[in-house]
Amino acid sequence: MPIMEWKSMIRFLANYKPRFYHQLVKRELIEQKIVKYNTDGDCRGNLGIGSYDFFLGNEEGDLIYAQGDNIGFTTNVVAETKAILEEIKYYVSKDIRTIRVETDSLLMVNILNEDWKVP
């Protein structure tokens, strides 16, 4: 934002409308005895204040558990990685052995499938 005089700044802030983003997530039913995790990590700008979240659902599509947190100044890749790391910590602590991870990060999908090397 350019340097402004007070009157201009007040006018700018009075007319400011924040942008909200959303994404519809379609949950698909999964086979029994498999736990499904959906993850997301993001940051405001691609070096900015970041957060992660993940949620766990069962084969009926019911929400079992959700977790998220702010992770400070970071990048999108770190935020996506943190989401997957935190979900892995959770399922290990609950002795969950078979999972299906869903993420919107093409980078993380290809790394987890061992198609790409870790940067």
UniProtKB/TrEMBL annotation:
Signal peptide: none annotated. InterPro entries: RNase_H-like, RNase_H-like_dom_plant, RNaseH-like_sf, RNaseH_domain, RNaseH_sf. SUPFAM superfamilies: Ribonuclease H-like (SSF53098). GO terms for molecular function: nucleic acid binding; RNA-DNA hybrid ribonuclease activity. It comes from the Eukaryota. Residues 31-119 form the RNase H type-1 domain. This is RNase H type-1 domain-containing protein. It comes from Capsicum baccatum. The lineage of its organism: Eukaryota, Viridiplantae, Streptophyta, Embryophyta, Tracheophyta.
